[in-house]
Amino acid sequence: MAQSLYFPLLLMALCSISECVQRQYHFINEMKNWTEAQRYCREKYTDLATVHNMNDMIQLNKTVNVNDRGVWIGLQGTNDSKWHWSSGDPVLFLDWASGQPTGSDNCTVLSNGQWFVGACNISWFFICYNNKLIVIQQNLSWSEALRYCRQNHVDLVSVQSVEMQYEVMNVVKLASTEAVWLGLHNYCSMNMWLWLSGDMVCYQNWAPGNGSTPENCNLEKRKGAVQSGGDQTWISLPESRRLNFICTNY
Ligand SMILES: *[C@@H]1O[C@H](CO)[C@@H](O)[C@H](O)[C@H]1NC(C)=O
Ligand SMILES: *[C@@H]1O[C@H](CO)[C@@H](O)[C@H](O)[C@H]1NC(C)=O
Ligand SMILES: *[C@@H]1O[C@H](CO)[C@@H](O)[C@H](O)[C@H]1NC(C)=O
Ligand SMILES: *[C@@H]1O[C@H](CO)[C@@H](O)[C@H](O)[C@H]1NC(C)=O
132-248 — its CATH code? Predict the structure, then answer.
């Protein structure tokens, strides 16, 4: 009994609210020096791999073939002997192998789950990452936002769990509008809200008075948005409203 209670608590600890599965890692099966690897990742993804916690390390290790000798990640040293992420994120977590970092080399190689310094001009395989969610700071109607996400990313975000709501809350503060479109639409005649995936709205985070009362079907169609400030609950808005929006990269 004690064990079955302990296990979910442990998972929660590994996967802290703001940091849970925010990044998606991509192993690149090409050898490049660190600078070229960085250029490649910035072109095709967000940047060279950034790692913020043990949960990220677990995800990162899963993308690497254990037989590979080493792969570049985005940590680089400067001559002030500090380490910086290529992405510009603060350095919150380090996973150096024992005795590392040492020597005068300034780039970081992941090998067997730990980090080693490596000479930046050597070619290794490498790992890029994508942010899973991205706030687009353009003011578009819901349909325009949907088209934008499908053309440039994957889709407008569906928020089907409290974990995803936390991820949304984490990125939505970048928005310039008071609310931000979600992939949530209203079937007025049936008085029903659905996610773009076609799923019904099971996990709910509506603001009071929103989402539950029937919408007026003679007026414009309604879509769902998350408020970027306050308690970041969801509201129902006419679809022509011009808002920032959140696309998924997965
Ligand atoms: C790092 O090196 C650059 C160029 O050699 C130099 O301008 C800069 O002052 C150095 N920074 C530190 C903190 O030593
Ligand atoms: C990395 O590779 C590119 C292309 O081969 C080369 O131009 C560049 O000088 C290399 N950078 C380093 C630091 O070796
Ligand atoms: C979008 O709308 C917000 C709020 O009205 C405004 O502050 C922002 O400048 C607009 N952004 C663009 C790119 O037009
Ligand atoms: C929906 O929520 C917003 C924000 O809390 C509120 O201003 C609005 O009145 C609500 N809509 C209805 C129909 O109650």
Answer: 3.10.100.10
